[in-house]
Design brief:
Length: 155
Amino acid sequence: MLQYTRAERAQLVAGGVSLAVYALVAWLGARLLDASFWRVLGALMAARAFFGIVEGIAGILNWRLFGRRKTVEGFLTVLQTNNFPPRFYQHDDFLNYLARIESNTCPESLKRTAKEFEKMLEFAESQGILAGARMHAATEVALEMYSPKARAPHL
């Protein structure tokens, strides 16, 4: 038997409720318009796909034009105001960098901030692959601006 996590079960229930609402609206639309249930349901799904594509394109443009720069600036500000140490090694990505901070002799306040960064990235990942990838890319750019790989020691 398949085992689902709590989040997966919640998504399945939400998807089922959404599908039930679409079916109800399609049934009502078919009754009111004297049309086929399947045609009305297909039209609803087509409309949803259309608006999903529009929202997706708008989200991409917003990220590329404004969001990425603002997010990188925000991450860079956190690194600067909390006096994060320089990159430990050239090959470190942002998550390795945070792990080294947490396992190093850094102050507890810095370790807490590093943990908060990790939680923020986990939250972004929970919002979807695209949101997670965007946040990870922004942290990498911010770290490169804060502590370039070229200045970090080789391992």
